[in-house]
Design brief:
Layout (H helix, E strand, L loop, with lengths): L7 E2 L4 E3 L21 E2 L3 E4 L2 E4 L3 E6 L4 E5 L12 E9 L3 E5 L6 E4 L19 E8 L7 E3 L12 E3 L3 E4 L2 H9 L1 H9 L4 E6 L3 E6 L2 H14 L4 H18 L1
Helix pairs in contact: 1-2, 3-4
Length: 247
């Protein structure tokens, strides 16, 4: 099969019509329309068709059977199962309020953590960071999130964030690391040990074994969006050499 083509759309464009046969190069061929299809930002369902509501580049995730449009936006618009990094901004009787960058704080139940019970649950304070995923995203309801996978009852990397540093960028910047993580993060990981949590809301958390390594990784990630492929590869090499010379 040929390489999937880059597909750009404008508001009102029909992205998928079940009565129309897809071309061989169409990225939508990666999706299984016989299973539940997850719709991300910029896409809506109208009259049995998938329709663009924003201008942007069509993106698909075969593993999640998800479709969305990549577009510049200053405010994050949540979608179900989006991984996000948020800051606790309030404590209520049975839930926390978490700023994830959208119009309203997300509700995070006290028991929405792996193994949490009424007598044994994380005690978070205002200002603490958490890594979780969105579970309710409806225009007429406050958004909700969880810090574990409620389907498996396992954390799967979600939970309270301790230490490290938070890196902020555009929404497209953070999503790019999730869409093509191997060529970018693996390059760094071959030289420096580090942990990473990627939120599609323009936030990435990193933690390495030393402050110098953490700051070097931060510089690399922040410059990724500013440089083209050839410039970025050279920049990474230079940064890694600088870190090694400090050891």
């Amino acid at each position: 099969m040929s390489e999937p083509q880059i597909k750009k759309s404008l508001p009102g464009d029909i992205l998928y019509d079940p009565s129309t046969l897809l071309s061989e190069e169409d990225p939508l061929n990666k999706l299984n329309f016989d299973q539940v299809l997850k719709l991300g930002p910029g896409v809506t369902y109208q009259n049995d068709q998938l329709v663009a509501i924003n201008a942007g580049e069509l993106m698909v995730n075969q593993g999640q059977n998800k479709i969305w449009l990549e577009f510049d936006s200053k405010r994050y618009k949540p979608s179900v199962h989006d991984p996000v990094i948020g800051k606790i901004v309030g404590r209520q009787t049975d839930h926390y309020l978490v700023d994830v960058g959208c119009a309203f704080p997300a509700m995070l139940p006290h028991l929405a953590f792996e193994g949490a019970t009424k007598n044994n649950k994380p005690n978070l304070n205002v200002g603490d960071l958490v890594y979780g995923r969105m579970t309710l995203c409806h225009k007429d309801m406050d958004p909700e999130m969880e810090c574990y996978n409620s389907d498996t009852q396992k954390s799967q990397g979600f939970g309270p964030i301790v230490g490290g540093t938070l890196v902020r960028g555009s929404l497209g910047w953070s999503r790019s690391f999730l869409n093509n993580p191997k060529s970018i993060l693996n390059t760094i990981g071959q030289q420096l040990p580090f942990e990473v949590a990627i939120g599609v809301n323009g936030k990435i958390w990193i933690k390495s074994d030393t402050i110098q390594n953490t700051l070097a990784i931060k510089r690399i990630l922040l410059n990724f969006e500013k440089l083209d492929q050839s410039e970025w590869e050279e920049f990474v090499k230079d940064e890694l050499v600088k870190v090694k010379n400090l050891d």
